[in-house]
Amino acid sequence: MAHESSSPRGFWLVKSEPDCYSIDDLKRDKRTAWTGVRNYQARNFMRDGMKIGDLVLYHHSGSEPPGIVGIARVCSAPHADETAQDPKDDHYDPKSTRDDPIWMCVDIEFVRKFDDILSMAELKAHKSLASMLVLQRGQRLSVMPVDETHFRIVEQMAEKSARSAASTGR
DNA sequence: GCCAACGTTGGC
DNA sequence: GCCAACGTTGGC
What we know:
Blueprint: E1 11-16, H1 23-29, E2 31-33, H2 40-49, E3 55-60, E4 67-74, E5 79-80, E6 104-105, E7 107-119, H3 120-125, E8 143-145, H4 148-167
Parallel strand pairs: 1-3
Antiparallel strand pairs: 1-8, 2-7, 3-4, 4-7, 5-6
This protein binds a DNA duplex through residues 15, 17, 39-40, 61-62, 65-66, 120, 137-142.
């Protein structure tokens, strides 16, 4: 590719139920291993696609409203998801062994939390995000790639809502 | 290997 | 609470 060096990073989106692990939990912990993913496609994105430094949109699912609440960054190479080997863990998988871990994850670190959630309704209202994967009907992946153009638009939307919040004294 | 039944995710 | 979209399971 002619302009390989102009796009050095990948862009991703991860989902989490805030009751399970929210952006505030990530902010408190600074970083965490993104464990518990038990879908092969999602695992493959972490194992084969994610690189240290890639930026990640953090999505709250099952919340009211659901939407993107901040940004994280990939901060480790892929490694075994140890929760798969823990019989007491909800995500225990007896098929996963120390020799053949099956389930892999990366670590992500907190970058920032948006002042306001960007709800799916708001995102869907933005025409240039129409093809964004997370907005497609019935799409259930918990780890997925994001186009850089979509990522930048989301960043701008977050900035804009922060500015309007500041100007109205909210 | 097919396919129906079932379970899960997650928006609405 | 409903339902769409899958992934998984298991009988055949």
